[in-house]
Amino acid sequence: MRHLQFPPAFIALLLQLAAFILALTGVRLFELKPEPIAFALTCGLIAAVFSCFTPLQRWWLIIQLAFAPALVVALNFNIPPHFFLFAFFVMLLVFWNTFRSQVPLYLSSVKVWQALETFLPQPEPGKSFTFIDMGSGLGGILIHLANVRTDGNYKGVESAPLPCLWSWLRIRWGGFHQCRVHWGDLWDCDLAQVDVAFAYLSPAPMEQLWNKAQAEMRPGTIFISSTFNVPGQSPIETVQVDDLHHSTLLVWRM
Ligand SMILES: C[S@@+](CC[C@H](N)C(=O)[O-])C[C@H]1O[C@@H](n2cnc3c(N)ncnc32)[C@H](O)[C@@H]1O
Prior knowledge:
46% of the residues lie in helices and 15% in strands. The protein has a seven-stranded mixed beta sheet with strand order 3-2-1-4-5-7-6, with helices on one face. Helix 1 crosses helix 2 (36-51), helix 2 packs antiparallel against helix 3 and helix 6 (110-117) packs across helix 7 (140-148). A hairpin with a 7-residue loop joins strand 6 (237-240) and strand 7 (248-253). It has two domains: 8-78; 110-253, Vaccinia Virus protein VP39 (Rossmann fold). The longest helix is centred in the N-terminal third of the chain and has 22 residues, at 8-29. It has helices at residues 8-29, 36-51, 60-76, 81-95, 98-101, 110-117, 140-148, 161-174, 206-216, and strands at residues 129-134, 152-158, 179-183, 196-199, 222-226, 237-240, 248-253. The protein is of the alpha/beta class. Bound molecules: S-adenosylmethionine (SAM). S-adenosylmethionine binds at residues 101, 103, 105-108, 133, 135-137, 140-141, 157-160, 163, 185-187, 200-201.
């Protein structure tokens, strides 16, 4: 995936288009009159076969296979077009730049939040520390940690508007004065003042994120990734969390 020039969704769409043109050419050439669902299944099959020859990950094959048939099935339900427009805008506000970043919104478990508590600096009278969640989703981690360790400053950066607004409201209404969530790009945030940096993203940005953490974080500070490893970098500690996803926390000391 590292050598992929275009976002996977763009490649998948191009392949769907190619499959559609090929299937249509076949239908015209042999003067066939297939049922819409049969035509859609043919398109899906061709797109899935094409995908095998691209760097798309294997799970894309299921999407490629099901995409056109799902469109035909959905059209049969006569759903008003406004519904799709509404759904599109909601999805846009929730997933925003997932198309490019390859990092969708999915949330860590409460057990992960609890495991993170053990990596916060030891409490010292009159001293505070800074924790950042890079891609903070709905702000659950920040609020949980702010509840259990009141001596910390908790920052979140989130690029998707709706999750960011949601977490901002939760923080404001909950009166968590030591929490801040910022609508922006994690690549623009400065890690120099951070004691513990946390990320739960995807395999795609991990190498770049590691380079950023190495360049900006102070020696002795802690970098934690949930689930996704940094290629070629062994963590100093891994914590297996007993949650539904069998999450693993990978911990590095900078
Ligand atoms: C897997 S979720 C993790 C949410 C939260 N940290 C948690 O553990 O529950 C990743 C989040 O990162 C956000 N994200 C992805 N790329 C980002 C970027 N470049 N800058 C800021 N946020 C980003 C996504 O919108 C998503 O909400």
